[in-house]
Amino acid sequence: MNMLTEAAVEKALDQKMNTIPYKMIGQDVSVYYGEKRALFDVKLNIRENTVTALIGPSGCGKSTFLRSLNRMNDTIDNCRVTGKITLDGDDIYDPDIDVVELRARVGMVFQKPNPFPKSIYENVAYGPRIHGLAKAKADMDVIVEQSLQRAGLWNEVKDRVHEGGTGLSGGQQQRLCIARAIAVSPEVILMDEPCSALDPIATAKVEELIHELREAYTIVIVTHSMQQAARVSQRTAMFHLGNLVEENDTDKMFTNPDDPRTQDYIMGRFG
Ligand SMILES: Nc1ncnc2c1ncn2[C@@H]1O[C@H](COP(=O)(O)OP(=O)(O)OP(=O)(O)O)[C@@H](O)[C@H]1O
Ligand SMILES: [Mg+2]
Asked: Ligand 1: which of 60, 78, 239 to mutate, judged by most atoms within 8 Å of the beta carbon?
């Protein structure tokens, strides 16, 4: 592809980016841990079939915001969320919302791979089973195989799906956790520093996977690596001291950010 067409494609993609619908809308999201306020009126929308990266120095509120998107903060004792977050227009903090169903629609992958101490098969089958997604064993077999396929792990484990998930390498375990998240057909996948415990080769595999998953899912990823944010995301949001500093196209964010704090952070001047 020559330079001109490449630029034209980029431009078309940029224009397209600005017309992508919002899967989730966050309005004035504030989070408190007891007396301590961790987020200040964050307005951040999550675009469909887009990878949105959350960046910023340690303690700025990235994980807190991420957890507010599927109400994982509910599991923290003194944590309180105010403001409004919607998923396809529905308020996820509405008292009538079934939180178990919400977390099936908005799945999560954690920093440290955390497979259950069960077989690879059972790790993936767990969610579909509690949500009643498979009628017969044959249906479950299909779900398990497809999820492992999508997570890019099937070829490595197909001969040992009944062996323990904890016997896999760290990178394989993380892809198993991604397969587990995918198995219940989520619409959004939240990832909190999914590669921080992985070596560069395993990281590259997970990044490649994130790239492919974007076609079918909406992804929000917290990362400490600017390079990773630049490689995997189309939108980037920068947090600082509990405030959203800037949200922009990833390319713009890393070449010509609007806010001097973003500039300072990506240049390594703080954090
Ligand atoms: N369970 C908790 N109880 C009390 N305070 C908390 C809790 N979790 C987070 N905080 C506080 O909320 C603020 C934001 O924390 P959060 O974990 O969201 O930051 P982060 O950007 O994810 O940081 P890191 O990059 O280190 O993971 C911090 O001041 C932190 O100390
Ligand atoms: Mg965090």
From this structure: 60
